[in-house]
Amino acid sequence: MKRMVKAVYLGTVYLFLYLPLAVLTIYSFNDAKHVVTWKGFTTRWYVKLAENSVLLDAAVNSLLLAAASATAATIIGTLAAIALKRYRFTGRTILSTSMYVVMMSPDIVMGISLLMLFVLMGLPLGFTTLFLSHVTFCLPFVTVTVLARLTGLDGNLAEAAMDLGAREFEVFSRIILPLAMPGVLAGWLLSFTLSLDDVIISFFVTGPTFEILPLKIYSMVRLGVKPEVNALCAVMFGVTLAVVSLTQLCFKERK
Amino acid sequence: MEHALPCIELEHVSKHFGDQSVLRDIHLTINHGEFLTFLGPSGCGKTTILRLLAGFERPSTGRLRIGGVDVTDLPPHRRAVNTVFQNYALFPHMTVFDNVAFGLRMRRTPAKVIDAEVFSALRMVKMETHHARRPSQLSGGQQQRVAIARAVVNKPLVLLLDEPLSALDYKLRKAMQIELKELRRTLGITFVFVTHDQEEAFSMSDRVAVMNEGVIEQIDSPSAIYEKPVNLFVARFVGEINTFEGRVLSRNGTSMQALVEGEQVRLSLGGNGNGGGAHCPEGGSPASCGSLSAGSPIKVLLRPEDVRLERAAPGDAGGLTGSIVDTVYKGMTIDLIIEMSGGKKILATEFFNEDAPEALFSVGERVRVGWVEDWEVVLPDEGSQSL
Amino acid sequence: MKDRSLFKALAVTLTVGWLAVFVIVPNLLTLATGFLTRGEPEFVLPVLTFDNYARLFDPAFFDIFLDSVWLALCTTVLCLLVGYPFAYILARLTPARRRLGLLFVIIPFWTNSLIRTYALIAILNVNGLFNAALLWLGIVSEPVELLYTNTAVFIGFTYTLLPFMILPLYASIEKLDHRLIEAARDLGAGSFQTFFRVGLPLTLPGIIAGSMLVFLPALSMFYVPDILGGAKSLLVGNFIRNQFLVARDWPFGAAASVLLTVVMGLLLYVYWLCHKRVRRAEPA
Q1: Which of B58, B86, B91, B105 to mutate to test the interface with A (most CBs of A within 10 A)?
Q2: I need a surface site. Which of A164, B243, C33, C194 has the fewest CB within 10 A?
Q3: Total domains present in chain B
Q4: Which pLDDT belongs to residue B374?
Q5: Which CATH architecture describes the domain C58-281?
Q6: A84 and A20 in one domain?
Q7: Long-range contacts of range C239-246, CB-CB < 8 Å, 24 or more positions apart?
């Protein structure tokens, strides 16, 4: 009886989390333009989506931005994790504090503060500003993921390598990096997803020269439900599903 | 000692972490081919010495020389030493072969040479058939062997071993102790070993350095450490020991009359007939033997196996007496716990004689406590001086 | 040790430099802008004033702020009430089920909140699933207008932010040594006493972390009221956005965002205090 209650409770919460997404996906195959009732199966919204060059351009831009900023964030975030783990240095507090600030700051605060920085620097809003912002908000997530991986390792490994004649860069390239790799990979995937998902920060630092998908969706969604948007959102959800499952596999391997 | 050339020299080395002093003015020479063990409780500084030698830490003051070269400011990869770590620190993402080859590759050794050297090192530790395995596929003892091969393949002047046997079970530890001794003979290089286990230290080392709170209390052969401890710390840290308080009554060269536990006894300062002053710490602390004169407070130390017991006849007077309060059967030996007349409890170990069980003492019997002359250790009472 | 310092210098300079330029400087810039005067066309004039921070207490803004805080608070409490039992049950499943169950929380966690908010429209519509269910159950006789109300915004926040509550709760509950619960029961504590005296205090860091992850975004996610609340709902996030993009009053917008940062700072402080208490209670 108690087990039943627990199972029903879990089920209800999962239903609450997934029902809207399921309905959205189902309606994306609905052969009706405005009506909420089921009018038969169709893939024409997906076809229409594939023909929408503006949306496709935005999607390509988003993927490009996500790949570029995830890569940069992974490099810097991994170095930060290694620095935090291995070195004592001035600025250590700045490093860890700003990581917390980034992770906890309301997106809107980060968005406007970065906007003001770019305006002050005289940077034209567009790919560059989006890239710099995305790298910044992805970075701490990489650091945390890599740090978790490094913490699980035997602390003597780096010293053993030094003892056997390895220089600092060789310790990094031959010991620490290969061992941290699952964490680095997971950090990259998480960054990629974060970058694809961001709306609020991008909203402030974007420019007319470089349109990205989440902001296109935002402007479409504000106008209400459309089958085409349904299809687009279903595709985005599918991408997240794949990336998250992949990330989980990476983590599982660790154990 | 044809190798009696200095291999490692520590000159007035000290190390602080913040305001915490871990090593205090260590001055020490280790000879070529010597097996030296640092023995001490955790936190005594023994591992720090090893880390200084390996180059993971730099001394706060003092100089370090290895093979005549001043290495004080050299990074680990430029020192002719290699370390066997406590938990082996084998690289989990490499095979046994790649682990052992790592050091050679770092020195840009040609691939052909690497192959030959790695297999020869693996053969030495009987692991050549496991060269393609990962560390996670090996048992603790096998990982231990690989860790040793990985260090010695680089032909270091000195092999540093940081409690390398502590993760192994008792039997394996015993076997590895013998193998390490053999290995040292084969290689002929200097071994510096760190442990908190006195049995391990005694069974392998040429010399043992007993450490406590950042200083070397005594550095000597294992037998000298055990039989002639220079102070109470060393005496108590290595093996069981009984301690009696006393006071010198009169002194005559290497022997003296003293009041111990309220009884007058004759004590020898010779210690195993090695001549007077053998107990006195070199360099001489203010409380050295020479200062012992009538009236000085002393401690008399006696190993349980050196205690000799006789049944006390009723009405016997004089000498130390007590009664047996418990017996502990140990197989080869039997431990007797004796309560002295003054209330103090001491431990005596006797060999178990199966042919004459009636010779054994039983609980409640009164005994006279004595010892083989010269086997007692007399130390100035350090504690009562500060009182 | 020269080569060590070279690599170290590179790693440290790059990371500390990046975060200093793109995190510390912008935040200080926002703080400073709050003290400056609005200008045209360069947005900000270097004239010192305390007006912007004073205007935060003007009812025109302060009422919006209070409304937002209230809504965010309600969202946090509801997420906590729903999320705690959920995380607790999840943490006590067999390892295989636990991993699967967790995966199904992580997926919505990483799914674009905008898409999830949009997905709610079809549910909350007049002729959506929610109304259909209410009609079918006979709770209402006519469809209720949910969409474009504050209730819809409330549901929207709860829906999008629930995974952000569950994950930190789960992490702290899973870490909790179950033997402590059993020990409390063994010593005669009832279910309620066990929970309030042992379980709750030890999972407090998770509760506060989860509450922060729900409360702060609920103040700033302007697109949820935009999509589900229509023009009627104006929350502090929307207000700040409007200052920057519509009213073009950057100094006032900056001041309002400093207020959000202060709220975040206070919550971080509370979190730190709790964390310290629980840490100290744990054996070293």
Answers
A1: B91
A2: B243
A3: 2
A4: 79
A5: Orthogonal Bundle (1.10)
A6: no
A7: C239/C61, C239/C64, C240/A108, C240/A112, C241/A108, C241/A203, C244/A112, C244/A115, C244/A204
Distance CA B23, CA B209 (A): 14
pLDDT at B31 > cutoff 80 = yes
What is the average per-residue pLDDT within B220-249? 89
The predicted-structure confidence for C204-260, as pLDDT tens digits, reads as follows: 889 988 999 899 999 888 889 888 886 566 789 999 998 888 888 899 999 999 999
Q: Which chains border C (3 or more CB–CB pairs < 8 Å)?
A: A, B
Give the DSSP per-residue string, B155-204: --SEEEEESTTTTS-HHHHHHHHHHHHHHHHHH--EEEEEES-HHHHHHH
Q: Could you tell me which chain A residue has the CA closest to the CA of B159?
A: A163
- Cβ–Cβ gap C241/A108 under 8 Å: yes
Residue of C278, C86, C283 whose CA lies nearest to C201: C278
Residues A171 and A89 grouped into a single domain: yes
CATH number at residue B149: 3.40.50.300
Return the pLDDT at C231. Answer: 59
Q: Which of C110, C166, C238 should one mutate to test binding to chain A, selecting the residue with the greatest count of A CBs within 10 A? A: C110
Identify the domain containing residue A132 by its residue range: 53-254
Which of A154, A162, A167 lies at the smallest CB-CB distance from B87?
Answer: A154
Residue A190: list chain C partners with CB under 8 A: 110
- Measured CA to CA in angstroms, residue C79 lies from A133, A138, C100, C130 at distances of 30, 26, 21, 20
Domain count, chain A: 2
Taking an 8 Å cut-off on Cβ atoms, the answer to whether B91 and A154 are in contact is: no
Which has the closest alpha carbon to B300: B381, B371, B343, B244? B244
How does DSSP assign C111-126, residue by residue? Answer: S-HHHHHHHHHHHHST
Write the pLDDT tens digit of every residue in C177-195. 888 888 888 887 878 888 8
In a domain, A205, yes or no: yes
Task: Report the relative pairing of strands B190-195 and B158-162 from DSSP bridges.
Answer: parallel
Q: Which two tokens stand for residue A228?
A: 């085409």
Q: Report chain C's mean pLDDT, rounded to a whole number.
A: 86
Q: Is the pLDDT of residue A69 over 60?
A: yes
Whether A113 contacts C29, CB under 8 Å: yes
Nearest of B305, B348, B301, B303 to residue B323 by alpha carbon: B348
| One domain, residues A79 and A34 | no
